Amino acid sequence: MESADFDAVIKKARKAFKKKDLLEAIDLFEEALEIEPDDIDAHEALATACYLAQDHAGAIEHFTRLTQLKPRDSTAWVNLGAIRNLRQEYQEAIKALRNGIQRDGKNAEAYYNLGIAQKGLAQTSMAVSAYREAVRLDPENLDAHVNLGNIYMDQVNHRKAKQHYEQALSVNPDFDRAKRGLALAKEMLDGGNAEMANPFGRLVNTEELDKRNAASAQVRKLTEEERFADRQLIQLAAAESSNLAAHMLTHLKEHVEPSLMTVAKLIAQDTGQQRGMYEARQEYHQAVKFLNEMFGNWQVEFFKLKQNEADLAAK
After folding, report:
1. Is residue 198 part of a domain?
2. Cα angle vertex 140, ends 120, 169, to 5°?
3. Does residue 284 contact residue 256 with C-beta atoms inside 8 Å?
4. Of 11, 80, 7, 94, which is closest to residue 50 (Cα–Cα)?
5. Residues 67, 73, 76, CA angle at the centre, nearest 5°?
6. Residues 174 and 251 in one domain
7. How distant is the alpha carbon of residue 66 from its chain centre?
8. 156 shares its domain with 129
9. pLDDT tens string 172-210
């Protein structure tokens, strides 16, 4: 009986959704979920209806539930990240999008929305990488091309910006944002702005850059990475430092100490040299002691970094 009731309510909900009566559709999908709380299709439909009705909290609730019901699927995570972007909750968006990418490393929408979140946190270099991956996976992603072009404009890299605006227009010649961006890029390239040229594509003239709003990046309707990247770099540096310290200790013990012992034997009968040899051996042992202490400290700090990363990933 419950199944029949569920099917009847779902049918009504879908009819209301088709008529774009979103509030009624939301009520009916919620009623259906009271009968079948874990129905995946009902959660997906309800999440979409909430999103269209601009009930972002409701959409987040049901997309989150979908990540639990379909743990291997990337779609719910990507939609969750996109909605977090709309709310300018960029750090939460990045966490969700990372989860989506872990499940599907070829999801262009995940990288596109990741670029939006990173740009929102002023993590420009990371945003460039994300947008580039998005257009690599989906060369017809117009918004990714334009947003990437906008970042290159901000970096005074007008040639690369022009390339991406042109790529967008090759897919859709009528795409207004790409048209405006391309016109501005051409103006900057042809306008004698040699004093602003920068082969490294870095920010040069902030006053000029503030004027470039003709093709500003937009958030697609359904999106803490530099810090994450920094932690990864620190971890790598710590690991390399630990390995270097261990290598230096091994080298000292296997090569320097035997050499000192050999020299000691050769000059053992020369009392005039014994004091110098004693001082050399003392300095050697001090160096070994220092490296051992440094190696131990690195190991402790490296462990803290790894634990901190694990704690962040678990949140």
Report:
1. yes
2. 90
3. yes
4. 80
5. 50
6. no
7. 22
8. yes
9. 999 999 999 999 999 998 875 444 444 444 444 444 444
